[in-house]
Amino acid sequence: MRTLQDLLPDIANLEDHEAIRWSSGFRTLASTYAELHGTIGAAINYFDELGIRKGDRVLIWAENRLEWVAVFWACIASGVIAVPVDFRFSEDLMRRIEAESKTKLTIDRAGLDRIRDLPRVRTFRVEPATPDDIVEIVYTSGTTAEPKGVTHRHRHICANLQPFRTEIHKYKKWALPFQPIRILDLLPLSHMFGQALGIYMPVLLGGAAAFTPEVHAARIVQIVRENRISVVVAVPRMLENLKNEVERRFQLSPPSPSILTRLWRYRKIHSAFGWKFWSFVAGGAPVDSELEEFWAKLGFLVVQGYGLTEASPVVTVNHPFDAKRGSLGRALPGLEVMIAPDGEILVRGESITTGDDGSWLHTGDLGAMDAEGRLYYRGRKKDMIVTSEGLNVHPEDIEHVLNQFPEVRESAVVSVRKNGNEQVHAALILKDPNTNVDTLVRQANDKLEAHQRIKSWSVWPDNDFPRTTSTMKVRRAEVARRISSVPQSMPPLQPRERDFSAMSSLERVELLSQLENQYQVDLNEEEFSQLKDSAQLEEWLRRSTVGRSERAGSGVLSRPLSDWARSLPIRLFRTIFQQLVAIPLFKHYLPLTVTGLEHFQHLEAPVIFAANHTSHLDAPAVFAALPFRWRRRLAPAMGLNLFQPYFEPDRFSKKEVWWTGLGYVLACGLFNAYPLPQEVAGVRRALNYTAELLKRGYCPLVFPEGMRSTDGRLHSFRPGIGMMAIRLQRPIVPIYIEGLYSVYSVHHSWPKRGAVRVSFGQPLRFTSESYDEVAQKVCRAVEDLQQFM
After folding, report:
1. What does the pLDDT read at residue 587?
2. Cβ–Cβ < 8 Å for 528, 680
3. Which fold has domain 563-787?
4. What is the pTM of this model?
5. Helices 505-519 and 683-695: angle between axes, nearest 10 degrees
6. Which of 138, 228, 487, 595 is most buried, judging by how many CB atoms fall within 10 Å of its CB?
7. What is the residue extent of each domain of the chain?
8. Residue 184: which of 328, 37, 22 has the closest Cα?
9. Alpha carbons 318 and 304: distance in angstroms, whole number
10. Inter-residue contact 491 to 460 (CB < 8 Å)
11. What pLDDT is recorded for position 7?
12. Quick check: 592 and 754 in contact, CB under 8 A?
């Protein structure tokens, strides 16, 4: 393999094989290699239209997705130099990189949306490349001064990939029964290791890459199972979060030496991940030996390696069939690794971007090698603390001891200067704020050598330490800077004030999801729904992150949602009832006029219908207005408060529970309705259910005003419709219903006759706008339909 262009024919030949899968936990989109190939062609045409030529530089600043991969391959095919930038970088840093790299075009999320909407091009020209041509310039995280990039040429990356290509070829036929081998890549594609596993390796395997914006451990497990993932690529921090999730959900028994016994003993855990999943590939930082042992005990393989951006990126790796716990594996063919007298890891070889003259690359990492040539990581050279006695202290050694205490969730050991000398200082994140830290530190010091002992400590006020964006390594320099002036005390956490009373239920769900992602715990929806202000939020978070509620996510939906309403017998009965009874009666008493049906001619289900809301008859009106093939897919959302006694039977009389239960069963059975809570408790489950309906081809009907209009006029839409549009990635079809306010409004006790008009609008698609912006646009679309009546 001379250049990366040699892989383009492989992409073309894979055609209908799955290439990329994107899952939000709510919605999954899968694309074939033919679609990827066509999008590469579309991106190349896009470059041509903008005058982008070979040697020009294109900056990519967006989340992992199909179009990101397509743009990157388009750069390779056309000789354009890619400048991938971590999407989590601030716009200010991105602009500085943009200026320093002299890019001619910047493609952000909106740019990828434009490329997605272009017609696919099956054949395109490939600008011939040489091994010395530049592929990309990579800017690593944590840049505080002027950004500096690492230049990668075809020969660097190809030299790094060739050993994997050779090894994969040996086992490729044995992997056929397991295809598609899906690799869930949780690293950003701006990261060299993320590219290796998310762009190149799927092509070499003939498998597929999977991406997700989710970072919450519970939902990662769900995505792995539902998408039949084989391998998860993640930083060790994510492996730790997943370990916490497993320990929270399952009662673990002692391990067995037999792999078959382990699979049986931990079968529920394997079932939770899905039986196709078998391995983690860790990148960005070394995996703690206890964490590696934990996953091995459950029967999962953890593949570790050692890499650098300057190495393109892999230096050493453990062979999956010859892995040794605790080691980072052997050097790849074409690379040499040497341990310097001071313990620093030195590397040279064909894939090293700075080693064209054969010189050694000084990595700044400390390591050791065994007699078999396996590398072991010992820490960062610059993080090493040199005591006044001239002895070296490695922070990782002390953190390993501290993290074994059950009271400690995480620790960071740094150097502080006192009287001109360096001393060991421990910053601690505690599970229990009432922990006696003095006693804990004394017990830790009893396990340490004299020169390693902790001299001072502080309790870190935040829920996590500052970390690099790509590899999630603790930024020790920032930790040291913040504690240097006050080593024994830290300022309390000051949460931003929030007006909880003004937040809709779906806005609260979004906040709850953000908090779960930040704190990596499942939080109780029902408790969260009772919070009034930031002070209560802070206290509740402190209790929740210590106690880790076992009732998280239970909410008020104590009864199962109406999945039975989609069973075959009920569907048949519903169709007969609607066709022979409900719709004829509706049209007899309420003459119906329908406009906008032409918008359905080229529209594919599923979609989300969004209508104004003036009457309890709005949903039947939409049923009556839709053509049969769309009517049978309709699933109206109904307010959970209408059936509160059924869902909370302990709070109401048996008579109320019985009557509301009957109403709920009729609504679900006859009209395929499903409950959508107006309060936060249970909303996430309902949103997940909405996503499940879409997966099955049903089309939810929602009323974004949140309640029936009291004056017949259209009122502003809540941001929930924006959340659905963005998170579920389905077209929104606006609907305006006129006439029902006069027939049966909130002011009527019984309906009367009257003419009804239902108008369907042009489907709307959204990708990157805010939830509020989407809600406003959908509201304006419904309002425009009103004007045409």
Report:
1. 94
2. yes
3. Glycerol-3-phosphate (1)-acyltransferase (3.40.1130)
4. 0.75
5. 90
6. 138
7. 385-483, 500-547, 563-787
8. 22
9. 6
10. no
11. 97
12. no
One-letter amino acid identity for 337? V
Domain spanning 385-483, CATH class: alpha beta
Q: Where are the alpha helices (DSSP H) in 26-83?
A: 33-49, 66-78
Smallest CA-to-CA distance from 5 within 59, 52, 72 is with 72
**Among all chains, which residue has been given the structure tokens 């419904």?**
782
- H helices present in 175-216, as ranges: 192-195, 201-205
Q: Per-residue pLDDT for 647 more than 60?
A: yes
CB 206 within 8 Å of CB 258: no
Q: How far is residue 661's CA from residue 20's CA, in Å, rounded to a whole number?
A: 44
- Kindly tell me the burial class for residue 317, based on how many C-beta atoms sit within 10 Å of its own C-beta (0-12, 13-18, 19 or more): buried
User: What span, in angstroms and rounded, lies between the C-alpha atoms of 414 and 417?
Assistant: 10
Task: Tell me the pairing of strands 699-702 and 608-611.
Answer: parallel
- Provide the pLDDT for residue 60: 98
* Strand pairing category for 279-282 and 231-234: parallel
How far, in Å, CA of 527 to CA of 656, rounded? 25
Task: Kindly report, residue by residue over 701-759, the tens digit of the pLDDT.
Answer: 999 998 899 999 999 998 888 888 888 889 999 999 999 999 999 999 899 999 999 99
| Residue spans of beta strands (DSSP E) within 370-461 | 375-380, 385-386, 392-393, 408-418, 421-430, 456-459
Structure tokens at 788: 């045409």
Length of the chain: 789
> What is d(CA 142, CA 580) in angstroms, rounded to the nearest whole number?
67
First to last CA, the chain: 64
Q: What are the residues facing 424 on neighbouring strands? A: 415
pLDDT at 403 over 70: yes
Token code pair at residue 292? 């590696």
Residue 622 is inside which H or E element, if any? helix 618-625
CA distances from 676 to 507, 623, 660, 681, 723 (A): 14, 19, 16, 10, 14
Q: 771-787 and 505-519 helices cross at what angle (nearest 10)?
A: 160
Instruction: Note whether 186 and 486 are within 8 A (CB).
Output: no
